[in-house]
Amino acid sequence: MGLRLLILSLMFVVLLVSGCGKQPSDRVVDLAGFESQMLGQHSRYFQEQDHKLSWQQAARAFAQSDYPYGASESIALGIGTDPVWLHFQVNNPTQADAGIRLAVKTPWLDVIDAYIVADNTLIAHINGGDYLPFEQRPMAHENFAFEHGFSSGLSDVYLRVESLGPMAIPIELSSIEQAQQLDLGNAYRYGLLYGMLLALSLYNLLLYLITREKEFGLYSLYLAGFVVNSFSYTGQLHEIITADFGVHFQDWLDCFLMITYSVAGLHFARALLKTKNYAPVLDRVVVWTTIVFPLGILLGAIANQLVFSLLLGFLLNSGFATLFIIMGIRARQAQVDSANLFIIASVTAACCIGISTMAVAGIVPYNTYTFQAIEVGMVFEAIMLAIVLAKRFNLVQQDLAVAEKFAHTDPLTSVNNRRGFQQPAEALFNAAVANNQDVAVLLIDIDHFKRINDQYGHTVGDEVIQLAANCLANSTRKTDLIARWGGEEFIMLLNNTSQAEGRNFAERIRMSLAELRCNTPSGSVNFTVSIGAAGSNQWVCAGKNLNELSLAELIKCADSALYEAKKSGRNRVVELCDACPFTESPVAEK
Ligand SMILES: Nc1nc2c(ncn2[C@@H]2O[C@H](COP(=O)(O)OP(=O)(O)OP(=O)(O)O)[C@@H](O)[C@H]2O)c(=O)[nH]1
């Protein structure tokens, strides 16, 4: 299944890349029946060298020189480069104005000037970019966008773009109707995506609060970090929250948000795969990566070197995807559970990040799907990792169940220990009181057990205890309770049983236990027990109604009776006498 997925992903990439070399037959954009088009291959471009040009100077430069057309839908020139001029032509063959939206579909662009020229006359100058407060921009949109009615005939459009950030310029021209539909589609897609990721993030935060397992908390941070990061680099954050804080603030915010999810993601992967246990060097590399890069970016911020910090940010983001894959492979070698799922998730995410990056850089065609491939990859990765975490949660629950069982079970005999007895015994006792049923307690103590230990050794002593426990456990009904009460002492709570019935039952088990033989190299060992029995006869115990007694008091009665059994010669059953002062019970002699 994993291999098939990988092949499909590769085919997808090949299909995308194969569309790259195609060139439009006509570079002039025809606005007749126009819907939507990316303009990279319809635009020529050059970079300003020394001083800022006017649109007339730029127009002259385009007319006089043979500047190249863009090789793909998005013209990309790297980080921190000189301002760029672009030129394309549109033709409206009809008599009516053609309402068109021009949008540069990426944020990070600081200053953009668009000049619309017809017959060498400037028809409109539209200025925008991140540097402007939101309400002063040409359109309420996350990217630079404006709408214009192109009049009949040929129009020239000159764009000057200036930015310190990544200079990727995917220009999209669309009819206004089509642009609104694209916006609506985008809003639905992003709503679904963010909703899903945020729900997963919250769910994992809750799991963290319940289990205190840090991988759930880090995963929650990782997802939330990605949403905020995506919100920021698509320009939506600046459209809604930080619109008026200026380009400087926005650039730096984007830069810092960019690294939040990679840092949280790397620590999540460390916690999930427990890298430290089998790959300490790789683990240290990961830890230092998450320290050095953010520190470098911070230093860049202090020195106001945005290009330097952005480069570090991009490096960390691409390094993060690579480290994820390496960690997955190392985990697989170390046979870590769920390493395979982790690898599939991270390879898919890395491919999708690659597609989005290549789309913006103009290496593969730029469209909604290639630009949003990173989100698709992230959702896929999020689902895969959620499956991994669900499995981990299941394991944690199983561990808890095992721990719980051990906390309540005596490891030598596998019957309840005192702790395991307490809660069900209280419930059983209270139910008996509520239902007016009799209830009896037996305390059973092996006689002269110390001698067995001394004569045959502790191992034989243990075997004797196990033998006695098995015999007692096999003698009880499902509704009764048995527990190891101390070293060589057991307790039984007998449901719906009077003291008289309890005494008879105690007599039977006393005789059964006396029959048992424990075979040892130095001969077979037998033993006897003394039993103290206490209970109610017709709901009256020690002169009190059962509902006036507590379970602890009933046990004290049985303890007094056991003390009497030991004192009066052992190997016998003694039952509670009517006058037993249970509140001042003597401690049984052992
Ligand atoms: N082998 C073994 N010995 C245990 C275990 N728990 C307690 N003991 C021993 O059981 C012995 C109990 O001795 P005592 O309390 O003197 O009681 P006793 O020898 O049975 O004498 P009476 O109860 O008076 O008949 C002690 O020596 C404990 O070390 C156990 O799990 N395994």
Automatic annotation (TrEMBL):
<feature type="domain" description="GGDEF">
    <location>
        <begin position="437"/>
        <end position="578"/>
    </location>
</feature>
<feature type="transmembrane region" description="Helical">
    <location>
        <begin position="256"/>
        <end position="273"/>
    </location>
</feature>
<dbReference type="GO" id="GO:0052621">
    <property type="term" value="F:diguanylate cyclase activity"/>
</dbReference>
<feature type="transmembrane region" description="Helical">
    <location>
        <begin position="369"/>
        <end position="390"/>
    </location>
</feature>
<dbReference type="InterPro" id="IPR043128">
    <property type="entry name" value="Rev_trsase/Diguanyl_cyclase"/>
</dbReference>
<feature type="transmembrane region" description="Helical">
    <location>
        <begin position="216"/>
        <end position="236"/>
    </location>
</feature>
<protein>
    <recommendedName>
        <fullName>diguanylate cyclase</fullName>
        <ecNumber>2.7.7.65</ecNumber>
    </recommendedName>
</protein>
<dbReference type="InterPro" id="IPR050469">
    <property type="entry name" value="Diguanylate_Cyclase"/>
</dbReference>
<dbReference type="InterPro" id="IPR000160">
    <property type="entry name" value="GGDEF_dom"/>
</dbReference>
<dbReference type="InterPro" id="IPR011623">
    <property type="entry name" value="7TMR_DISM_rcpt_extracell_dom1"/>
</dbReference>
<keyword id="KW-0472">Membrane</keyword>
<feature type="transmembrane region" description="Helical">
    <location>
        <begin position="187"/>
        <end position="209"/>
    </location>
</feature>
<feature type="transmembrane region" description="Helical">
    <location>
        <begin position="341"/>
        <end position="363"/>
    </location>
</feature>
<feature type="transmembrane region" description="Helical">
    <location>
        <begin position="309"/>
        <end position="329"/>
    </location>
</feature>
<dbReference type="Pfam" id="PF07695">
    <property type="entry name" value="7TMR-DISM_7TM"/>
</dbReference>
<dbReference type="GO" id="GO:0043709">
    <property type="term" value="P:cell adhesion involved in single-species biofilm formation"/>
</dbReference>
<keyword id="KW-1133">Transmembrane helix</keyword>
<feature type="transmembrane region" description="Helical">
    <location>
        <begin position="285"/>
        <end position="303"/>
    </location>
</feature>
<dbReference type="InterPro" id="IPR029787">
    <property type="entry name" value="Nucleotide_cyclase"/>
</dbReference>
<dbReference type="GO" id="GO:0005886">
    <property type="term" value="C:plasma membrane"/>
</dbReference>
<dbReference type="InterPro" id="IPR011622">
    <property type="entry name" value="7TMR_DISM_rcpt_extracell_dom2"/>
</dbReference>
<keyword id="KW-0812">Transmembrane</keyword>
<dbReference type="GO" id="GO:1902201">
    <property type="term" value="P:negative regulation of bacterial-type flagellum-dependent cell motility"/>
</dbReference>
<dbReference type="Pfam" id="PF07696">
    <property type="entry name" value="7TMR-DISMED2"/>
</dbReference>
<dbReference type="Pfam" id="PF00990">
    <property type="entry name" value="GGDEF"/>
</dbReference>
